[in-house]
Amino acid sequence: MKLLLIEDDLQLGAAEMRALEMAGFEVCWIRLLRDADTMLLSQAFDAVLLDLTLPDGDGLELLIRWRRRGERVPVIILTARDAVEDRIGGLDSGADDYLPKPFSIPELISRLRALTRRAAGFASQIWVVDALALDPVNRRVTLAQTPISLPPKEFDVLQELMKNADQVVRKQALLSTLFSDNEGVESNSLEVHIHHLRRKLGNDRILTVRGIGYLLQSFDKGAA
């Protein structure tokens, strides 16, 4: 899961990033609102961790702008503003969760996992589409209860497709999931991963939407 962390405090930001990465998250850490806006427009994130008091403005105003323009990425506010009216204002402005500082890192990780499950439309920790099941915490996949071995990047592609089952995921969004800014992207790298997934999961599972991206289709719309 890819997170955008917006925190200007160097010591706290470094500690949060280290703990989240140890828990298996990929974290992009920035310290300014203007960089956050640019980053969200250019990359796909599973969730945003947003501080409110930042050097170049109020994070709450940025959140309001995001929601007005239709940004649906889940947002958890992390802030020292702990009054009840602050929490109400944050949630009413479009935050999905609100955690006052100081907070417990294990609690933050638990809230993140619950939030991304809900955003993906799954009620439990295990994501299920037909006979395909994915455990994002332990990074395990089964097909008809048989374990499927996937290298890290194949797992990441499948997770993004399952999160958006029966919807087209744009090629650029998948490339953003696969590669950080400092990694070289080979021209056919995504196609290779898709080919390997089809070989393991079935050729008719992942559809190519020419010129746009890929779609993981569910055959049983009633799957839990």
Features:
alpha/beta, Rossmann fold, 2 domains, Arc Repressor Mutant, subunit A, 224 residues, four-stranded antiparallel sheet, five-stranded parallel sheet
Descriptive account of the structure:
The protein is of the alpha/beta class. It folds into 2 domains: 2-120, Rossmann fold (3-Layer(aba) Sandwich), CATH 3.40.50.2300; 127-216, Arc Repressor Mutant, subunit A (Orthogonal Bundle), CATH 1.10.10.10. Helix content is 41%, strand content 23%. The chain has helices at residues 10-22, 33-42, 59-68, 84-92, 105-120, 152-163, 171-178, 189-201; strands at residues 2-6, 26-30, 47-50, 53-54, 57-58, 75-79, 97-100, 127-129, 132-135, 140-143, 146-148, 168-170, 206-209, 213-216. The strands form 4 sheets. Strands 2-1-3-6-7 form a 5-stranded parallel sheet, with helices on both faces. β8 (127-129) and β9 form a beta hairpin. α6 packs across α8 (189-201). The chain is elongated.
For the record, what is the CATH homologous superfamily label of the largest domain? Response regulator
- The CATH class designation of the largest domain is Alpha Beta
CATH architecture annotation of the largest domain = 3-Layer(aba) Sandwich
Strand-residue proportion? 15-25%
Structural class: alpha/beta
Per the CATH scheme, the topology name of the largest domain is: Rossmann fold
Total count of domains:
2
Level of helix content? 40-55%
Rounded radius of gyration (Å): 18 Å
> What integer is the average pLDDT?
87
The outline comes out as elongated
| Stretches with pLDDT under 50, minimum 5 residues | none
Order of helices and strands: EHEHEEEHEHEHEEEEHEHHEE
Strand order, largest beta sheet: 2-1-3-6-7
Give a count of the beta strands, DSSP E runs of length 2 or more: 14
**Major sheet summary line:** 5 strands, parallel
- Intertermini distance: 22 Å
Task: Please count the helical segments.
Answer: 8
